[in-house]
Design goal:
333 residues; alpha+beta; 60s Ribosomal Protein L30, Chain: A; Phosphoribosyl-aminoimidazole Synthetase, Chain A, domain 2; 2 domains; six-stranded mixed beta sheet; 12 helices; globular
């Protein structure tokens, strides 16, 4: 996957001067920026889209950024769309993706206000970028840095849901051999689990939900490190409490992945969050109404150490790991 190392990203961000109008500037571990607009805050998130099943490209393009805005407690309201492809690209491909984009925006009542489309010799495939905007009151804003000591580490969907679904779509024959025909067909229909807009907005309304993060590139490794780092806390994670589907373990064996790579498996649509113990039951009930299961897989701590308990042994939680998504989705000869 293509994220810069934290130290390299920080060097790049150092040239950005502070501005009193900006509440949340570009920071490592934060997927949305925030600035003042009247007596409210405007939450802004931008995400690229590439290397995904093309029949879902436009839908994912909108939902990636819309999810980040919703995780801040703001309802996504407006967006811009950029589509770029190699020269030549059949205009029908752009049109198909734009139709998907419009349908996704309509699902969330997001207005598309601007964009750009072009073809460039330097590109090898279509790339999309979506920027989504939404407003929230200062009191309702949530950020990745809001976790508090003693908060429980919430997980809303199984690890690797995105990777398994996309593998079933892009490599159906292999997935059928690994999982069986019926399971492959079922998993291939779960693409919409890669959005967390609805549950993020619902969770944001619960007192005691302090922070949320989508487990996108880098999976649980990136999201948990970014939540803890942004909150200046440590975290204890329990391996046995992490919901890991059997299909993910099958892919781990098939691709000979380490446990660290498994934890880093891209899991877009899975919220990892910080919630108080007193709000646990409300969170469980709310997610159950949305046909989701709340798992509490750890706890944030005052101490800065990040640990992983597995089989009774306390290990260091990975500070970084290679997300195997791109290699797993590569075409096979």
């Amino acid at each position: 996957m293509g994220k810069l190392a934290a130290k390299d990203l920080q060097k790049m961000l150092n040239c950005i001067p502070p501005d009193p109008r900006v509440v949340v500037p570009p920071l490592i571990g934060y997927d949305s920026g925030v600035h003042k607009i009247g007596d409210q805050y405007l939450v802004v998130a931008a995400d690229p889209c590439t290397g995904v099943p093309e029949e879902w490209f436009g839908w994912l393009l909108v939902n990636y950024a819309a999810s980040d805005v919703a995780l801040s407690g703001a309802k996504p309201q407006f967006c811009t769309i950029t589509l770029m492809g190699p020269r030549p690209t059949d205009p029908a491909r752009f049109q198909k993706i734009m139709q998907q984009t419009c349908e996704a925006a309509n699902e969330h009542n997001i207005a598309i206000v601007r964009g750009h489309t072009g073809m460039y010799d330097s590109l090898k495939d279509i790339i999309g970028v979506c920027t989504v905007y939404g407003t929230v009151t200062p009191e309702q804003l949530l950020t990745s840095g809001g976790a508090k000591p003693g908060d429980l580490l919430l997980c809303t969907k199984p690890l690797g849901t995105e990777t398994v679904t996309n593998y079933c779509i892009t490599h159906p024959a292999s997935a059928q051999r690994l999982f069986g025909i019926e399971k492959q067909q079922t998993l291939a229909k779960q693409m919409k689990l890669q959005s967390c807009v609805k549950e993020a907005l619902a969770l944001a309304g619960i007192v005691g939900v302090h922070a949320m993060h989508d487990a996108t590139e880098g999976g649980f490794v990136s999201a948990i490190n970014e939540l803890a780092g942004a909150s200046k806390l440590g975290v204890n994670v329990c391996w046995e409490k992490i919901p890991i589907p059997p299909e993910v373990l099958t892919l781990q064996a098939h691709f000979n992945l380490s446990d660290e790579q498994l934890l880093a498996m891209s899991s877009t649509g899975t919220i990892l969050g910080a919630v108080t113990a007193t709000s646990k039951q409300k969170v469980e009930t709310l997610l159950q109404k949305l046909n989701l299961t709340a798992s509490f897989i750890g706890e944030f701590t005052e101490e800065k150490e990040k640990t992983l308990v597995k089989d009774g042994n306390t290990l260091a939680f990975p500070s970084q790991a290679d997300d195997p998504y791109t290699a797993m989705m590569a075409p096979t000869s």
